[in-house]
Amino acid sequence: MNMKKHFVVALLLCSASQAQNLRQLGMGGVLLPESNVHYSNPALYGFDRYDLDTGYGLPLGLLQLYRLQQQASTGSTDLLFFDALFHPLEWNFSVGGPQLVPNNGSSGSRITTWAEGWNASQHSQTLIPFDLDFQWNPNWHLEVTPVIGFRASDITYSDNYSSVSEGGPLQPNQVYTSSANAGYRMTLDAGLTYNQLLSEQPGLKLYGGVRNRLSVGLLRFEGSFQDKTVTGPDGERVDALSSNHSEFFAAVDPLRAGYGTHLDAGLVADLGDLTLGFGVRNLLQYEVWPGSRSVSDNGKSTTTASTLMEPFFAPEVLLNAATLIPDGENKLIVGADTTFGVGQDLGVHLGAEYQGGNLQYRAGLGFEKGFQLGLGLGADLGDFQLDFALTGHQAEITRQFVVGVAVGAKIKF
Predict the structure, then answer these.
(1) Which residue, 143, 214, 269, 321, is the most exposed by fewest CB within 10 angstroms?
(2) How many CA atoms lie within 13 A of 149 on its CB side?
(3) According to the model, what pLDDT value does residue 156 have?
(4) Cα–chain-centroid distance for residue 187?
(5) Alpha carbon of 385 to those of 11, 168, 244, 318: distances in Å?
(6) pTM for this model (two decimals)
(7) Would you give the DSSP letter of residue 113?
(8) For residue 113, pLDDT beyond 60
């Protein structure tokens, strides 16, 4: 028994993201209304109709760190690497990716190397390394969750950039413009949740949950950039006619950490074979980040103390549904979800799992910043649970379609 426990701890330490569940990957990314989705809907605590003892994921994607080592001396950056950071369970089969390559001379960087593939005005991604949950009675829960968020939006560039060869010079007598906006944040959240059966009628049980979440801001960066490059007859930048402006906010002082309080709420309707869920994060919030802001105009910079505040109302919504169809001793689960909100990309997923004997067969598709596909297989081997997922999704930032594989294993006791 002790050896099993030690092995479980080792697997947990290797698992880089509980947010990426092997079952969800195999079902095309769909979030079923089950207990482990309480992050998005506090009413789902203890709702275990669709729960399955899936395996922990080994962070195969992080093995791709070798790409950075290979590029250290080339002067370019393989932007596909960032996809591995936000999909750490997956090893993708794409070799290399679009690169950000400096142009010759002093004309700046060729942004279109990767921006030509951008197909959304806004992109955000949240990573939850792990989620610690403590329960002292059926209705009260305390959770501690580190959260890492990345956002990029408003990326624009002039059409004439597309005629510039990779790493080559800019064309003569042109006006090139580009802009970008991005942010990165790390917080530690502590949430107190209360959930309750609100109503019970024939054929319907309605559950509700509310959560007060306190957050401590560990690290935050926000930056924006606008550039206008005017070239002369020789293709070189004309400084007198060109301009650039950038702003950069940083909150990195541990003695002046960000702080905030948030209200989350949710409902779950149990209709027998059908379950409907509705969850909202950040229904109301107050979040403040003290830091410093640097402004640069044409190379002249100033830095001042500054405070960044989040919107008071910034909901992130999850609507999901699932039905269980008995098939003798086996069963079929079909689920669907949609996510949307302030600062959140629209996502729609549809997936299914057929449980036959000791095996689970999974498939699904979705759209979230691009198309997603998933095929999965789970095996219950008594003391062991093994899971496999073959996935396909558009890569972060570069937007190219990549195919990956993820595996997981869990010892049950």
Answers:
(1) 214
(2) 22
(3) 74
(4) 14
(5) 13, 53, 55, 29
(6) 0.82
(7) H
(8) no
User: If DSSP codes are grouped into helix, strand and coil, which group holds residue 119?
Assistant: coil
Structural domain count, the chain: 1
**Do 389 and 87 meet the contact criterion of CB atoms below 8 Å apart?**
no
User: Could you tell me if residue 369 is left (phi over 0), alpha (psi between -120 and 50 degrees) or otherwise beta?
Assistant: left
Which one has a higher pLDDT value, 363 or 74?
363
Alpha helices in 355-402 (DSSP H): none
Within 8 A by CB and 6+ apart from 47, the residues are 33, 34, 35, 207, 268, 270, 275
In this predicted structure, the answer to whether residue 17 has a pLDDT above a threshold of 60 is no
Torsion-angle region of 194 (φ positive above 0: left; ψ -120 to 50: alpha; else: beta): beta
Give the mean pLDDT of the chain. 82
**pLDDT for the residue numbered 134:** 87
End-to-end CA distance of the chain: 8
The first and second tokens of residue 332, run together, are: 């079929």
**Tokens at residue 323, please?**
């039905």
* CB within 8 Å of 315: residues ≥ 6 apart: 280, 281, 282, 283, 341, 342
Q: Which two tokens stand for residue 269?
A: 């309707």
The CA distance from 121 to 52, in Å, is: 37
Confidence of residue 125 (pLDDT cuts 50, 70, 90): confident
Distance, in Å, from the CA atom of 46 to the CA atom of 51, rounded to the nearest integer, reads 10
Domain range holding 338?
2-411
* Amino acid type, 21: N
Mapped onto helix, strand or coil, the DSSP state of residue 82 is: helix
- Kindly write down the DSSP assignment for every residue of 300-349, as one continuous string: EEEEEEEEEE--S---EEEEEEEEEEEETTEEEEEEEEEEEETTEEEEEE
